[in-house]
Amino acid sequence: MALIKNFKIQNEPEAKALHNEPQGVFISTYGCQMNVNDSERMYSLLEMLNFTSVPQPQDAALIIINSCSVRERPVHKVHSEVGRYRKLKEKNPGLKIGVGGCVGQQEKSKLFKDVPLVDFVFGPDNIDDLPQLVTSCFVNSDVKLMGSKFKHQDPYHVETLIRSTPVAAFVNITKGCDNFCTFCVVPFTRGRERSRPYKHLIKDIQSLVERGVKEVTLLGQNVNSYKSDCGVCFPELLKGIALETDIERIRYTTSHPKDFNEELMKVSAEHQDKICDYIHLPVQSGNSEVLERMNRGYSRKDYIEKVKMIRNYMPTVSLSTDIIVGFPGETDEQFEETLSLVEEVDYESIYAFMYSPRPFTKAARYEDQLTREQKSERLQRLFKQHELKAFAKAKEYEGQILDILVETYDEKLQNLKGRSTQNKVTYFAGGPELVGKTLAVKINKAFPQTLRGERVTL
Ligand code: SAH
Ligand code: SF4
Ligand code: F3S
Q1: How far is the CA of 181 from the centre of ligand 2 (A)?
Q2: 30 shares its domain with 124
């Protein structure tokens, strides 16, 4: 079976025939919000090719797995998901299966050897080539196709594509990452960091507003290092979006503590009507030596000082974080420092992971790798410590009145679901006409992850 890297459409008439017939596409998405946004882009591009999204893989002529390789587990999930499609492919040999995302970029043509059911592989930098890739794949059914070239030289301007109008949309502001934290595969799967031009971003967000979007989440691996072609930095970008567009709410993720500065806080305080009261600030470890070996560029003290500064400017802010337990060489005492930092910072939620050695990364070659048991024991301790605290924190919302932007209506439960500016998911009774509105909701009951309340008039 041939492997084609340059996938120019070979046979125009057949390609056109493919475009004329509507076909089902199913995309399953792993990983971060960037992948969620990329899948939305894939669906939008494939709709232009006359594909329609189907809710189940068995109804699809095309299945795409938008994969994540940040830890071992999501990579395994990709392999086992492809395995589950064996029967579908036996029944329908015309079914095409593609792997996109970070596993695609990392493994490239090796995937064809490891998982022969896969017809095409592509990386996060090649999403805009997808229509061509898919068409070629249907036309030349006996070749394997690959698109995984980094496009470092191309201008980075991708207009946000959405299918229906969501209340809240993701908008990429940067791609790639230059930080090379020693545990992280992302710089190798997403390439070098690039920022979208400022003016394009403003125009893009305003056009989302005109289609009905109320909230945007600005996405980047390190949004704080955004630097536009005309020298605009991240706080200036936020200010520009707040002043020059009619968007109601602005969120952003992920913030890197080393580049998080006071200017950002000043802009957030000035535009608190639009900039949400929620910051995800991954700490990774509470011990300065571990942080240094992770190449994070800040110490425990630096981090805690930044948190104090944040609370100074935004007293009602809700903070969340990412933590890695069992980094190579992490001692019990060093791990205890992570526990004490979590206690001290008083996060609303934490996302914690066992360290997982990743290909190409420096830390994978460090000596003193911990055993799975050690890592798992630390993870349990961390979760246990935080669980009760997080629930007690959620309970503080009981009795408060929060502004909830309604995102969806559940017909069965006749329930509305929305989020507060602190990113708390809140349910309350109401009809579908309220989707897209920001309403005052009194919180009656807090659950560990969500809130329940009732609409009030002020
Ligand atoms: N750009 C973001 C993180 C992207 S990856 C940042 O810098 O914060 C999301 C999270 O996955 C990281 O914050 C980290 O906690 C976790 N992670 C990344 N690589 C990992 C690895 N090798 N093992 C375990 N967790 C990892
Ligand atoms: Fe990975 Fe670090 Fe870049 Fe985040 S900042 S994507 S953890 S290398
Ligand atoms: Fe995963 Fe790639 Fe995102 S590795 S976390 S999908 S950047």
Answers
A1: 6
A2: yes
Residues 110-131 pLDDT 10s: 989 988 999 999 999 999 999 9
Q: How far is the CA of 23 from the centre of ligand 1 (A)?
A: 36
Q: How far apart, in whole angstroms, are the C-alpha atoms of residue 169 and residue 209?
A: 10
CATH of the domain at 438: 2.40.50.140
Distance between Cα 271 and ligand 2 center (Å):
28
Q: What is the pLDDT of residue 120?
A: 94
- Structural domains counted in the chain: 4
Residues 402 and 392 in one domain: no
Predicted pLDDT at 338: 98
Range 141-165 average pLDDT: 82
Whether residue 168 sits in one domain with residue 298 = no
Which ligand does the CA of 181 lie closest to? 2
| In a shared domain, residues 201 and 112 | no
Atom 7 of ligand 3, residue of closest alpha carbon: 186
Q: Which residues line ligand 1 (CB under 6 A)?
A: 70-71, 183-184, 186, 221-222, 254, 256, 282, 284, 322, 324, 353, 355-356, 358
Nearest CA-CA partner of 326 in 385, 384, 386, 377: 377
Is pLDDT of 14 > 70?
Answer: no
171: Cβ contacts below 8 Å, ≥ 6 apart: 37, 160, 201, 204, 205, 208, 216, 217, 218, 219
Which atom of ligand 3 is the closest one to the Cα of 35? 6
Residue nearest to atom 5 of ligand 2 (CA): 179
Which residue has 């080393």 as its token pair?
258
| Domain around 444 | 398-455
Q: pTM above the 0.90 mark?
A: yes
Same domain, 136 and 33: yes
- Type and span of the H or E element at 234: helix 234-244
The pick from 70, 181, 291 for probing ligand 1's pocket by mutation, whose C-beta has the most ligand atoms within 8 angstroms, reads 70
Query: What mean pLDDT comes out for the span 362-390?
Result: 96
For the chain, how big is the Rg over CA atoms in Å? 23
Residue after which a domain boundary falls, among 253, 276, 299: 276
Tell me the average pLDDT across 221-241. 96
